[in-house]
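User: I'm putting together a small comparison set for a docking exercise, and I want a reference complex before I start. The sequence is below, and the ligand is FE2/S2 (inorganic) cluster. Could you produce the 3D structure with the ligand included, as structure tokens?
Assistant: Of course. I'll restate your input first, then give the structure tokens for the complex.
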Amino acid sequence: MACRNCSPRPSEEARMTPWHDVGEPGDFPDGAAWPVRLNGHEVAVFRLGDALHALADRCTHGMARLSEGYVEDGCVECPLHQALFDIATGVPRCGPATEAVRRFPVRVVAGRVEVQA
Ligand code: FES
């Protein structure tokens, strides 16, 4: 178990980045994407079973919105050229995209979903 002195500390940027309320867990249907705009960031919130994830709502190959993509087997397929991104990690699983999509931290506090952006 990590103690207070040896556990990783959040960076100054992470501590200063605000959390935004985006709804209740039930607002996010399993296997679908929900687009939100937070602090100037276009973000797509996904539910995979009990887990919530947030990715930049922009494919790293082009300008397509991943919130308009098809979700299957833990991945979202870009609607433009069909790159596949792992929703939990943002890592591309299939080209033509080669760069990971930015991930945003997600938490549930007092029954509300919050995304840090
Ligand atoms: S814009 Fe997404 S794969 Fe080309």
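Residues 59, 61-62, 64, 78, 80-81, 83, 96-97 surround FE2/S2 (inorganic) cluster (CB under 6 Å). The chain has one domain: 32-116.
User: Thanks, that's exactly what I needed.
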